[in-house]
């Protein structure tokens, strides 16, 4: 297969001839999940609206299977591309089944009467989103999460090659978010449906997407695999974060480190026992130090972001004098020492020295 | 495990079938009731009036045109054309409302509240007086054409306003009511300068009435309303798509620009025909589609469109009956009666929407 499937070439988009984002060049392969991320108001939705032809394209072109998208009739396009939009549906007296069935519109006759096959497709789509039981319910009487699933079923029912979703996870609780994204993943992998969407949850974007597009200012700042994009510096720059951190390892967001350079507490931990303690200290805005941590320890990943001092040692080495002395210095200074739990083995046996020192000074608190 | 799944699956598909069956039975019941109401009202309408004609003789006169010549005359020259006009125009008015509600995604839109009927009235009055002053009398087609132009003028205004106020429901209605007032004021102004003989004619018409309908009116209305109805029915598929909003409609293949124009044209044709013959009639366009959708339990256009037409016919024939009989021999304006029955429905609707 030639790589060109859905191609945006030098595309400029915006409202009323005012260009919002220019020179967009993306090359999307069949069956890929592509996610647009970026700050609010960056124009992610504008891009989606332009490639679905809701907005006039201002410059450049969108090529779908090597055909300029504006040369495809709405009718033909509707058999290839389905959308899930952010705007709320104002329906009256329509059941979920009715809503999903509108996805069959491109395939039904003049009066839009569903054939046996259409009915089956509707059922299939409802089943794919685990919503068979919602079929006969009034669309206005179901929850946001259910609505979103029904709208996705509607798109699936349209038998498209591409589904375009604008913030499909907004308003959903975490369970529905996961469910929705796993359905999308399944569609892409099993049916080869290409998925282009915007997401606010960058942690989810990182986990589900094959490609990430960063939208900021008036252009696409980056386009690449999640591994390439989800790095501390790139995310910080994209969202202009100055009040917290993005942790690329877990894809999670951390709040700002406690203010103050003088640690009040020294935390001794290992293998994740320190993480809840660090978060708790962050909440109470208490500056703290942590150590001695191996640099491959999971606690180190968070301590690095939140602690004002971290004493480290290279992985799998015995704890050396330098680290231990530095840690002792800090313990001397700190009014409190917390032992969050650390198994002591041959490599890190000198941690015992730190615990003893703290005990001696009456500062040690065990959790 | 797998067995229980199969049963569950069957259970679900069965419930869908049951659901479909239940829906179809409901549609059938509604249509049958409407048909029964339709015929009952026709018979009662023909039967009653200053001269009471017993039902046995009505059928005879209708089918054989024989009997007491006075009664034949009353039925064939007065009551039958009048009731047929009430039926067709009532259906047209209701569908005009339904189309406007679809267009503006707003259940309280209708030809009367949006000032469209008043716009039509204004242009009709103007052309009527103008042509009379030149010594011509207007034929029915030019009346419809004038009303159509008037409808489009009002709707043009509404569209301009709706773009400015982002389709805000309340603002749109206020704009419509204001346009209605402006058009009525202009109409009154024109009437002031008309000669006395015209005013008598115009006055009765501009308040709305089904009286004085001729067979030529009936024929022309049948042609115009008939064609418009067929076109509207053929649009039920895109109308259904449009109910999801423009963006979704386009994504499933509706050419929005073309379709918007088609919706406006169809609804204007309907309301123009009504205004040309019967003057502005209030509330029918809002109340009937609402009641019909409620009765059918769906807003699917393919069933709502024919049902709304028949429902509107029944509603207007009933209101015309009341207009004729309530204070006989005095006759009420048709709008007076449609308001009495229609306005409470609209108020109920608004209260219910708030709650929902």
Give a written overview of the molecule.
The complex is a heterodimer of chains A (about 375) and B (about 350). Chain A folds into 2 domains: about 5-240, Rossmann fold; about 265-365, NAD(P)-binding Rossmann-like Domain (Rossmann fold, 3-Layer(aba) Sandwich). In chain A, about 35% of the residues lie in helices and about 25% in strands. Chain A is built from 13 helices and 17 strands. In chain A, the strands form 4 sheets. A 6-stranded mixed sheet of chain A has the order 6-7-8-3-9-10, with helices on both faces. In chain A, α10 runs parallel beside α11 (about 300-305) and α12 (about 320-335) packs parallel to α13. Chain A is elongated and about 90 Å long. The model of chain A has no long low-confidence stretch (mean pLDDT about 90). Chain B has 14 helices and no strands. Chain B starts with a helix and ends with a helix. Chain B is mainly α. Chain B is globular and about 60 Å long. The interface of A and B includes residues 53, 85 and 110 of A.
CATH domain class of the largest domain in chain A: Alpha Beta
Rg of chain B, please?
A: 22 Å
The helix tally of chain B amounts to: 14
CATH topology of chain B: ABC transporter involved in vitamin B12 uptake, BtuC
- CATH architecture label of chain B: Orthogonal Bundle
Distance between the termini of chain B: 41 Å
Q: What is the residue-averaged pLDDT of chain B? A: 86
Number of helices of chain A: 13
Helix content of chain B: over 70%
Oligomeric status of the shown chains?
A: heterodimer
Kindly provide the name of the CATH class of chain B: Mainly Alpha
Runs of chain A in which pLDDT lies below 50 for 5 or more consecutive residues are none
Shape of chain B: globular
Query: How many structural domains are formed by the residues of chain B?
Result: 1
How much of the sequence lies in strands of chain A comes to 25-35%
Gross morphology of chain A: elongated
Q: Please report the total strand number of chain A as a whole number.
A: 17
Estimated radius of gyration of chain A: 27 Å
Strand content of chain B: under 5%
